[in-house]
Specification:
By secondary structure, the chain is an alpha+beta fold. The protein contains four helices and four strands.
Amino acid sequence: MANFKLTQAERLCGKKRIDALFTSGNSFIVYPYRIVYRSVSDTDNVPVSMFVSIPKKRFKRAVKRNLIRRRIKEAYRKNKHILTDTLQSQETALDMAILYLDREILDYQTLEKKLKDLLQKLKEKVCKESCEKNRPKPNDS
């Protein structure tokens, strides 16, 4: 049975790790999300460490930002197995940030559907990157 908890170890914190994520990470957009991710070597027995960011520029009230953050974290908690199962089998780990781009508060079902699409796309990108990294290079002789 899948573990549906979102533990403290799965939450990305620490200025150094977050700065490293934004300086050397890759990103893509699945509207209304932008994801920034990077592979890490120190796994801490956790395949994915993540955090959610909602810009204060778009949502002035903390109540609205917290509502969106809670919805996104809940959708991630319920669907993280899409990504974590693959990462555990490949013995890789990720740091990732989910940034909310929309100017309106979307309902939970829409957020969850888009997050599933995002996790599926991220899974494909990570699999592709790990396959390229593990592939032996041909000799030029």
